[in-house]
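tool_call: predict_structure(chain=1)
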Amino acid sequence: MKISIIIATFNAELRLSRCLDSIISQKTEEIELLIIDGGSVDGTLKLIDSYKDFIDFVLTEKDNGIYDAWNKGIRQAKGEWIMFLGADDQLMPGALGKYLQFICSMEGEICDYISARINYCNADGRLIKVIGKAWKWNEFKDKMTVAHVASLHNRSLFNQVGLFDTSYRICADYELLMRKRDKLAATFFSEIVASMESGGVSFSTAAIKETCRICNYHNENSFLKRCYLFMRKHTEFYFFILKMQLRKLLHFNLYAGL
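tool_result:
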């Protein structure tokens, strides 16, 4: 088994089918699909059951958030490489085949982590921007620069550094990749492999605070550096919000004039 895809779900009836459809249309014997459900009470479990012929493992029980669910999935996964998706994320057509070819081309190389690029879209599916670039420690130590959605983690990475720290509720994926510091063997796959919808808790001031907490812990930043990072991240966040509002207003006025 080459790639294990782990999806954490909780009351995801309205959005999960698009995610699953994007996977099963390109699933092969080299791809394993696991769903870890947090005890959904809507129609999620019924929906999952309708895809049972394509899903290799399902667990449904209460959990302590998405990272707890992903940890449960890691323990069950059989793949050499592990991918994490949200219930509302979607793989691009052909993404898994391209990943498999890329992995084969790396045979013999030591690699902990493969990141790619993703489309960041609004609720209507319109592209906002493309996210993701090559991992570089000097940039990564201060902020999340790679696209974690649909990236690949070598199983050996978890053997070395452990599982996700569930004390982090939003950015535990960033914290896990910080543990090897500049020794992380990361590779960049310059393809758009997935799309994710804007919004959610990962795009919030709470996420900024947690990122700063992670940076300060792993880098032992001085007080001045902590203040600088905090102010810079908030400035970037609010500037992006303003830019999105201006784009939305411009789009509305454009169509209102037709």
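agent: The chain has one domain: 3-220. Proceeding to next step.
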